[in-house]
Amino acid sequence: ETIRDRNFRRPEDEVRALKKGVHGLIQEYDQTYFELEKSREHLFQAEKLAMVGKLAAGMAHSVRNPLTSVKMRLFSLGRSLELNKAQQEDFDVISEEIGHIDNILQNFLEFSRPPRLKLQMISPSEVVDQAALLLRHRLESCNASFTIERSKPLFEVQVDPEQLKEAFVNIVVNACEAMQDGLVITIKEEEKFIDDGSQATVIRITDNGPGIPRRIRQKIFEPFFTTKEEGSGLGLSIVARIIQEHGGSITVESQEGKGTSFVIILPITSQKESVNEHNPDH
Ligand SMILES: Nc1ncnc2c1ncn2[C@@H]1O[C@H](COP(=O)(O)OP(=O)(O)O)[C@@H](O)[C@H]1O
Ligand SMILES: [Mg+2]
Fold first, then answer.
1. Any ligand 1 atom below 6 A from CB of 231
2. Which of 142, 174, 237 has the most ligand 1 atoms within 8 A of CB, as the residue to mutate?
3. Which SS3 state, helix, strand or coil, does residue 173 take?
4. 120 three-state secondary structure
5. What does the pLDDT read at residue 7?
6. Do 268 and 199 contact (CB within 8 A), yes or no?
7. Segment 233-245, tens digit of pLDDT
8. What's the 35 CA to ligand 2 centre distance in angstroms?
9. DSSP secondary structure string, 47-72?
10. Which pLDDT score is estimated for 272?
11. What is the C-alpha to C-alpha distance for residues 173 and 161, in angstroms, rounded to an integer?
């Protein structure tokens, strides 16, 4: 095609070329608009978080003190009162709901607290066991079967056991809340080589619950995203933050009607390595 030819393009071609150009422009505009909307949403989210964090911390602190006293009084009442069956039921519901409120507050406090890890060398298996102990009652009350698949305890890694335990608990509690009967929860532990050739700890928490619909799967780690009437939507955002602070990652695999797996990967930095870094003669 020479310049001459182009100058003598037929009008249909002219129109076609124009149409293509306009179409491209529209597409670009759409893309820009989409990106603008997305960053606006991020900003909004960040502002919302900052504000809510401050409010929640103040609120939660001031509400929690009287609540603790209510809890204690209720506990001592429960030991001394002689109640009939209906009264006992009322009493139990009140205690449970107060526990529920306390949980929500704790979640908010946890969320607004600036995170600081208290790292120690410990096998994540030990943390899984601690979490299981904490969850025993909960698992019984939701009638779940619970197994840990472990060939040998995981290598020791640098973690904050308290925080990691909280992450495990949040995930298992979600599984309990997702299904009433016949719930089976498995925690599978192993070490694996990951993409960069280093070894990592892999902890997979699987349930046979209803699964998470694809369209919301990306949202579940966002703060305040919940599908529950009484949910705070903070559980998994706290989990994600804890795992990220450990230099790890968390992903979700889910099949509707079949179940859900949360896969946590933690980097292994052996004590030897970290000692050598500080003390090359060692
Ligand atoms: N094991 C699971 N099975 C099905 N849905 C789940 C599971 N874990 C999390 N989800 C979904 O992710 C959402 C967010 O969870 P989370 O952040 O813990 O907040 P909350 O539990 O307060 O709703 C839940 O509302 C639920 O829809
Ligand atoms: Mg939750």
1. yes
2. 174
3. helix
4. strand
5. 60
6. yes
7. 889 998 999 999 9
8. 30
9. HHHHHHHHHHHHHHHHHHHHHHHHHH
10. 45
11. 18
Is residue 156 within 8 Å of 117, Cβ to Cβ? no
| Residues 256 and 142 reside in one and the same domain | yes
Residue 282 domain-assigned?
Answer: no
Domain membership of residue 46 as a residue range:
1-114
What is the per-residue pLDDT for 12?
Answer: 85
User: Residues 232, 182: contact at Cβ < 8 Å?
Assistant: no
| Residues in the chain, pLDDT under 50 | 271-282
Say how many residues make up the chain.
282
Region label for 101, one of left (φ > 0), alpha (ψ between -120 and 50) or beta (otherwise): alpha
Provide the CATH number for the domain around residue 80.
1.10.287
- How far is the centre of ligand 2, averaged over its atoms, from the C-alpha of 274 (Å)? 35
pLDDT digits (tens, 9 = 90+) for 122-176: 999 999 999 999 898 889 888 999 999 999 999 999 999 999 999 999 999 999 9
- pLDDT for position 62: 82
Q: What is the pLDDT of residue 251?
A: 97
Q: Which helix (H) or strand (E) holds 206?
A: strand 199-207
Angle at 262 between CA 213 and CA 205, to 5 degrees: 125
Q: Is 259 in the pocket of ligand 1 (CB under 6 A)?
A: no
Whether residue 148 is found in the same domain as residue 168: yes
pLDDT of residue 60: 80
